[in-house]
Every structure is written in C-alpha cells, then in structure tokens.
Design goal:
This protein has one domain (7-293): Spore Coat Polysaccharide Biosynthesis Protein SpsA, Chain A (Alpha-Beta Complex), CATH 3.90.550.10. The chain is built from 11 helices and 14 strands. It has helices at 38-48, 63-68, 73-81, 85-91, 112-117, 120-123, 147-159, 222-228, 240-250, 268-279, 283-296; strands spanning 7-11, 32-33, 36-37, 53-58, 100-105, 128-131, 135-138, 162-168, 178-181, 192-194, 197-200, 211-219, 253-257, 261-264. Strands 1, 4, 5, 6, 8, 9, 10, 11, 12 and 13 form a 10-stranded mixed sheet that branches. A two-stranded antiparallel ribbon has the order 2-3. A two-stranded antiparallel ribbon has the order 7-14. Helix 3 (73-81) packs antiparallel against helix 4 (85-91) and helix 8 crosses helix 9 (240-250). The longest helix is centred in the last third of the chain and has 14 residues, at 283-296. It starts with 6 loop residues before the first strand and ends with a helix. Bound molecules: 1-O-phosphono-alpha-D-glucopyranose. Residues 112, 132, 134-135, 177-178, 200, 212-215, 239-241, 264, 266 line the site of 1-O-phosphono-alpha-D-glucopyranose.
Length: 298
C-alpha cells in the first residue's frame, strides 16, 4: 500500500547571503511577499495539500520563524480589545488545529541534503515532502490555490513514485539549479515524466536540459539512506540532487512541470517579481501599481 504524504521538511537554516543586507538581522524566510512572510505562503501551500506535520530545519538566530507560527497572546489580546477583528484573524491560528510545527537544528551548514537528513528521526520511514522556502509557487488565478503542489502529492498517492517540480529557465540561469535530464521525452504541465538523470548546478554547456529543479519534492524515505552515504558535491556541500540521482536508478523519480508562476525569492529580482505578482491579485493594489507605472512612464 502506498503511504500518504503527511510530513513536510522545510529547510530554513540558510544565511540568505544573496539577499544581504536585507537579511543581516531578519531571516530571509520572514521577508514579506506582499502581505505575509514568504514562509507563511509556503507553509499554507503544504497544509492545503494535506500535510499535517511541518518540520522546520533551522539554526541559531532564526527563532523569529518559530515565533511567527506560535501564539502571541499580548498582541492578540490588544487587537481583540481594540475590536480589530480582521487583523486579529491574520495573526491568530496561522496553523490550523491538527497541524503540528516541529523544529530541529542544523548546526553545520553542510548543504540541502544534510538539512533533510537532520529530519530523519522525525520522518519514521515515511515518504515526505520537501519545500524550499525561497521558492513561491503561484498557481494561475483560474486554478484552485496551491493546485500544483497538491497535484504532486496526488501523483505520489496514485503511483508511489517520487515527484520533483521543474521549470524551464534561461540557459544563463541554469548553473544556479539542479537540472533534470528527461532523455527524449517531453514534459508538459501536470504530466509526470520519468527522470533519467539529475545534476546539481551544471555549467550551461554541460546542462542536460533547461529544466531546473525548483524547490518542491515528494520523496520516498529511501532517499534518507542514500543521503547518509552521499559525499560532499558542488560547493563542498551534501547535495540532495546527488542522492536523488542515485534514487532514480533504484525507485524511479518523476519530473513534474506546472503552468504556475514560480518565483525564486532568494535573489532580489525574483523577490520583487513575487511581490508584484501576488500584489496584482489584489484589485486595489493592482490599480495603484498600474497608476504608478503609468505616472512614471516605466
Ligand atoms: C537548491 C538545490 C537546487 C535547486 C535550488 C532551487 O540550491 O540544491 O538543486 O535547484 O535549491 O532553488 P540552492 O538554491 O540552495 O543553492
């Protein structure tokens, strides 16, 4: 029987160097995308797909992330007393009843693969999701919110084959990402295609395709055993991509493309684009942005 996906690992121990100086004192995951921290968008995406346990892999100095998901009684009390019900609704019960948020520490910055491995004792040999909090997945307005990630979970629940979200990127950007080789097969939105190989941050001339791995994974627990023996790769870090390249030879692994907007908020342009894209979904903000652009002739 295929075990359902109930747990999600969200690695939040990164230093956010690409977003300095904004991230000198503030965790990058708490920078706002429009009206809430980016990590709240990501956690809600996970919960909407049926995840009931969020495991944050964090580090010292980033306690504000855990605080964001905890109750803040004084603030709630004051808002209640002032009758500010709407704002109160945005800060209270961000995490619905029945969903647990657990956090563990990654004390050494040894890479994404190492971060995922830090959660092993909480995963109990169950399949799990990994969501990178730098990446915002904004489904087409015509679709149900968080449709893409939910579809990946459904694809696992139907097949028991791991799923990795991919997106076509420009060839100059390819060296920032894990890249999937699909051989001669073509991917198309909402179709899972078997991956033939994965390579972490190749140079544009060595890249097997322009399909970048973009921060959403549904994985069998077998990957944890592989991570235990994965040696340091690109950048001297234990790369999740390297363990996945082994996994696909044993269990298979599918690439999952979507038509969603995918924003890498780990760099300044991606972050600004994400803010604009989410802001434009609010009719009043959309009018203000359009007026601003027109006024300035941008
Ligand atoms: C990580 C992964 C990489 C993936 C990327 C997505 O890289 O190692 O495979 O494509 O996230 O954002 P990082 O951005 O941590 O260097």
């Amino acid at each position: 029987m295929i075990q359902k996906i109930k747990k999600a690992v969200i690695p939040v121990a990164g230093l956010g160097t690409r977003m300095l100086p904004a991230t000198k004192a503030i965790p990058k995951e708490l920078l706002p995308v429009y009206d809430r921290p980016i990590i709240e968008h990501v956690v809600k995406e996970a919960i909407a797909a049926g995840i009931t346990e969020i495991i944050l892999v964090t580090r010292s100095g980033k306690e504000a992330i855990e605080n964001h998901f905890d109750a803040h009684y004084e603030l709630e009390h004051r808002l209640e007393k002032k009758g500010k019900e709407t704002i109160l609704g945005t800060v209270k019960n961000i995490i619905p009843a029945g969903v647990k948020v657990t956090s563990i520490r990654q004390s050494d910055a040894l890479g994404l693969g190492h971060a995922v491995l830090c959660a092993k004792h909480l995963l109990n040999d169950e399949p799990f999701a990994v969501l990178l909090p730098d990446v915002l997945v904004l489904d087409q307005a015509s679709r149900e919110k968080n449709h893409s990630f939910s579809s990946m979970v459904d694809a696992w629940n139907d097949t028991g084959i791991g799923q990795i979200m991919v997106e076509r990127v420009d060839s100059e950007a390819i060296e920032n990402y894990g890249v999937a080789d699909l051989g001669t097969q073509l991917s198309e939105p909402f179709k899972s295609v078997p991956i033939k190989g994965l390579v972490e941050k190749p140079s544009p001339k060595d890249a097997p395709s322009n399909l970048a791995v973009l921060g959403r994974y549904i994985l069998p627990s077998a990957v944890l055993g592989l991570l235990e023996t994965t040696v340091a790769g690109v950048g001297g870090e234990i790369q999740l991509t390297d363990a996945l390249d082994e996994l696909l030879k044993l269990d298979g692994l599918n690439a999952f493309e979507t038509d969603a907007g995918i924003f890498d908020c780990g760099h300044k342009r991606g972050f600004l684009s994400a803010n604009l894209a989410v802001g434009m979904r609010d009719p009043l903000t959309k009018l203000s942005i359009k007026a601003l652009i027109e006024k300035n002739g941008w």
